[in-house]
Amino acid sequence: MIPATAPLSAAAIARESAVIAANYAPLPVVLAAGCGEWLTDVDGHRYLDFMSAYSAVSHGHAHPRLVQALIDQAQRVAVTSRAYHAAPLGPFLEKLVDLAGLGAGSRALPASGGAESVETAIKAARRWGYRVKGIAPDCAEIVTARGNFHGRSTTIVGFSTEPAYRADFGPFAPGFGHFDFGDIDSLAAAITDRTAAVLLEPIQGEAGIVVPAPGFLAAARRLCDERRVLLILDEVQSGLGRTGRWFAFQHEGVRPDGLILGKALGGGLLPVSCFIGTAEVMDLFEPGSHGSTFGGNPLAAAVGLEALRVIEDEQLIARSAALGAHLLARLRRLQEEQTVPLIRAVRGRGLWVGVDLDPQHVSARAVVERLARRGVLTKDTHETVIRFAPPLTISRAALDWGIDVFAAVLDEFLPAPDREAGRVTVLASRSATRIPMNRARPAANPITQPRARLMMSAPDHFEVSYRINPWMDPAQWRVGAERLAQDAQRGWSQLKQTYERLGAVVEVQPAVRGLPDLVFTANAAVVLDRKVVLAHFLCPERQGEEPHNRAFFEAMRARGVVDEIVDCPAGEFFEGAGDAIWDAGRGLLWSGHGQRSTAGMQHFLAATYGVPVVALELVNPRFYHLDTCLCVLDGGEVLYYRPAFSRCALGLLEDLVGKDRLIEAGDEDAMHLAVNSVCLGRDAVFCHASAALRTQLTERGYDVHVVPLDSFNRSGGAAYCLTLRLDRSTQALPQREVFVEEDLSELRRAA
Ligand code: PLP
Q1: How far apart are the C-alpha atoms of 248 and 607, rounded to whole Å?
Q2: Distances from the Cα of 96 to the Cαs of 39, 247, 259, 273, 368, in angstroms?
Q3: Judging by beta carbons within 10 Å of its beta carbon (0-12, 13-18, 19+), is residue 444 exposed, middle or buried?
Q4: 647-657 and 396-411 are packed helices; what angle lies between their axes, rounded to 10 degrees?
Q5: pTM of the model
Q6: Residue 677: Cβ within 10 Å count
Q7: N or C: which end of the chain has fewer CB within 10 A?
Q8: Residue (of 502, 451, 498, 445) closest to 682 by Cα position
Q9: Is residue 263 annotated as a catalytic residue, yes or no?
Q10: Backbone angles phi, psi at 380, to 5 degrees
Q11: How far is the CA of 133 from the centre of ligand 1 (A)?
Q12: What DSSP designation does 47 have?
């Protein structure tokens, strides 16, 4: 336990307090150094950072690449003003504009603090209102959300609904209206003919990490289009990976007209912010219309560019998605299983979660103070909410430790009998958190549970006439061709019937003579959100499949099964869902590279689907597609075969999935291609399952269905390879945790 008044801290606090305006009420911690997710105070105590300076330190403290970029640029030139051009600014804004994806001709206007860029957005919206929409002079209005937080300038606090932010700072600028956050009817009512823009945070941060109901942002986008109003999103806090996407708007597949960024854009080292707008909005700025002495300075641009690159290179968005799902699940479990209702709500996205405490039982400020004394730094907001916003670089172990400390602190607020039972702590330290899934069987309830839609290609011409992977042995096939072909037909039909029995709809692609591997449909493409990214095969033997796959997907587009067909980019190879596996619970795509698909595909897939992609390097020629050595089960477990992956890939799997959710396949299962399986809810379809694997899966609540697929195994494929999922949606939220809880209680009873 860290003492309440350590000597050096006490002296530093006294010194600072004597001369600083009392506009904050800091915790009594005097920080002296930081490294990654850890901070140290002047007395040498260590703390875990669960605050990240209100998301400004998403990269962790003193990230070596960012510090180096800062030093290198500072030694060249730091501040030039925009009276001149500066070399680092173009590359920085080019990257930022590209990531924001606001369309051709979109531009950025750089500044320093977040509020400055909010001011830029307000100016841009008003200009657009007068010059494009034709609103009468000085009448433009901007509609904002109740509970908003956009900064502290007088204009901005003028439209805040928080009395403390406004008291005696008026008079305020007119021209702002309000709606109830998350309420589309209220937003519709607030918009008038004079409205130029709707300005909102996709998730309200300072209000207590308030997440609107799914669909709200998409509805707001539609409304803005209908009423000819700009949609401007303030992603100063929610942007740059914090919610498990580059930008929170990507969760709903919408695009704003204007986007405000700040905080993490400075890599935790400098104030860097930006307003990015569509061409129609940004072309309204001319020289002299707006400016900022420090905005876009070379130092800020160099650090900002490196900050974006680090997010990409260190897969921080995927970390946020995966570790955020874990954080949310653990905190929700605490809430569900508490004996005294200390926690009223747990809400958030990615590594950004607010825990709302019941002030009748516990004071958020007191919890935050006790957390600090136990070495975990966070901050209360709005008296009842505690935020969990660690650096996106945090390790899983540190995250778990911080949550354990939080649970232990909550225990201290329980009445004595409950505390003695140690209920909260015991439950918190149980690590088997699971990603929610739905128990309902598709076949049993086709109305509430959409039926899985799969694609398979008939094995009419399947045989191994060539050798493109270590499994294939054409000589062996020649000897028993007839028997193997019959076996293939039987196995394939049995697999299709199994899927149909489990409630799936199967689309069958006609077989093509001379293209035996067309049967391995998973390699034809990946389909997410009804968008098809077509494969481009590395092996010339399979390239003949490409026109047939294209034709089949074109036909499916004509039938309305898919919406869009996208080519694999020139210079890349990509073997479809075999190397791109959607993980619904974590909200990310696992991609494999190093054998068949090229590493560059991760960026293309991330940009195409707007989702985090975790690139895993495959190092074993026998396990040449990701689906031969990794399978994501619908309850969140990942079945994998260790020898197939590089060390770095194994590290990522362990950190993002967690040891308790990783199921390691043994040699027997891997060599029978058992990992190449298909999960439909609680039903897992395998071509082989050892007794040990079957027991593990059954214990976790799965029904294991085994369909022997020996002929296909000889070609390196099994159930997953023979199947392409057409109905995966990146927007689908995981269902409530139903079957896991029931099964756990069943298991406990049985034990
Ligand atoms: N917008 C949002 C959503 C914020 O959370 C903040 C700060 O917390 C700001 C704007 C203001 O940023 P700054 O404090 O850098 O001016």
Answers
A1: 14
A2: 30, 12, 11, 11, 35
A3: exposed
A4: 20
A5: 0.91
A6: 28
A7: C
A8: 502
A9: yes
A10: -80, 155
A11: 28
A12: E
Taking the centre of ligand 1 as the mean of its atom positions, its distance from the CA of residue 236, in whole angstroms, is 6
Pocket test of ligand 1: the residue of 122, 237, 352 to mutate, having most ligand atoms within 8 Å of its CB, is 237
What is the token pair recorded at 407? 């649970």
Q: Catalytic annotation on 659?
A: no
Among residues 613, 700, 612, which one has the least CA distance to residue 661?
700
Pocket test for ligand 1, best of 144, 148, 149 (most atoms within 8 A of CB): 149
The pocket around ligand 1, CB under 6 angstroms, is made up of 54, 113-115, 118, 149-151, 201, 205-206, 234, 236-237, 262
pLDDT, tens digit, for every residue of 364-389?
A: 999 999 999 999 999 999 889 999 99
Q: Which contiguous run of DSSP H or E holds residue 386?
A: strand 385-388
Known active-site residue 234: yes
CA of 465 to the centre of ligand 1 (A): 63
Matching residue, tokens 């998403």: 58
Distance (Å, whole) CA 742 – CA 751: 14
Active-site position among 50, 159, 179, 263 = 263
What type of residue sits at position 629?
A: C
- Running along the chain, 751 residues long, what does each successive block of 10 average in pLDDT? 85 96 95 98 97 97 98 98 96 98 97 98 98 98 98 98 96 98 98 98 97 97 98 98 96 96 98 98 97 97 98 96 96 92 96 96 95 96 94 97 97 78 48 43 44 95 88 85 92 97 96 94 97 97 96 96 96 98 95 97 94 97 97 96 98 95 97 97 96 96 96 93 95 46 40 36
Top mutation candidate among 57, 204, 206, 236 for ligand 1, by most atoms within 8 Å of CB = 236
Ligand 1 centroid from CA 204, angstroms: 11
Computed from CA positions of residues 64, 69, 72, 74, in that sequence, does the dihedral angle turn out positive or negative?
Answer: negative
Q: At what angle do helices 396-411 and 316-336 cross, to 10 degrees?
A: 20
Among 50, 92, 149, 573, the one annotated catalytic: 149
Q: Any long-range contacts for 545-552 (C-beta under 8 Å, 24+ apart)?
A: 545/512, 545/515, 545/517, 545/518, 548/509, 548/512, 548/515, 548/518, 549/509, 549/518, 549/524, 549/525, 552/509, 552/510, 552/524
Please report the atom of ligand 1 found closest to the CA of residue 235. Answer: 3
Structure tokens given for 88: 């680092």
- Residue 733 CB: number of other CB atoms within 10 A? 11
